[in-house]
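hi! just following up on the protien thing from before. the input was this:
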Amino acid sequence: MKKRIKWSVLIGSLFLTYVASYFYVHSYKELIHFNNFPVPGNAIHTKNIANSKVEEFTWSAASEEDGIPKRYLAVIRLYGWKDATDQESDSTITFEKNGMKVDILTSTDYLYVAKQPQ
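and the predicted 3d structure came back as:
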């Protein structure tokens, strides 16, 4: 009987972990013109700058001092983007996927996604 309860708890825990991670990963929207680069679902699109080469979002988790939150970096990597940053910076990181490079810049409450020229 105890063995059955342990297995039920284990299966239930695994299921809840799966459901939580599914919703966490899928709470991001993709930028079509940026090779489906993920942007947090709660980030509000505010501006299109330089003919769709830069997108501005208001996002309360963005910080100039702390840079991009680690949970967002993990999701970007899950989408297949590789870190291609040339120099260390807390507020700007470059990612690359399929030959396209995208810069992420943060300032307090703002997130900027910029497409690098190819």
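The beta strands are 28-31, 37-40, 44-49, 54-58, 82-83, 92-97, 100-107, 110-115.
DSSP finds two helices and eight strands in the chain.
cheers
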